[in-house]
Amino acid sequence: MQAQVADHILIPLLDGDYTLAQIARLDDTNDDLRALLYLTSRQMTLKSEVFAFGSRDVKAVIATDLALIPTNHWEIVGYEPIPDLARAAVDLTSDDTTLHDQSVIEAFANALHGLYPWDGFPDADFFTNLLRTPDKLPSRIRMSADMPQPDA
Fold first, then answer.
1. Which of 36, 134, 136, 146 has the CB geometry, 3.0–4.6 Å to 142, for a possible disulfide?
2. Sign of the dihedral through C-alpha 102, 108, 110, 112
3. Is position 152 within any domain?
4. What is the mean pLDDT of residues 48-77?
5. Measured distance CA(112)–CA(104) in Å, rounded
6. What is residue 128's three-state secondary structure?
């Protein structure tokens, strides 16, 4: 993925829409392209107007390796000022930094929008622990028990 700091990107959702994220930092000192993403719960389409968002819009701060994201899978749709998050002190150069896989980030984005169960991972609190404010759950989340059940 060719990207730069401050790029706005669209992360695909299961319903065909997207959630908006921004690349807050990049580091390529290791053998990968580490990025710090600010994820919002702003639902977008390819035609949505993209504009700067504030620190209150950032639901999660997640590190990933952009080198593993297929070209054009996460569409770059803008370039805006980065919100100032005082508590987003993630060291992208550290080997101890957890780099989340694209599928985990997409599952989290879908869970923010109620399209994937919030408790859908083996650790039922996995997504809660990714939140910037874990004690404030997003309003649209749905638990496994609330999801439509397949016909038997």
1. 146
2. negative
3. no
4. 92
5. 12
6. helix
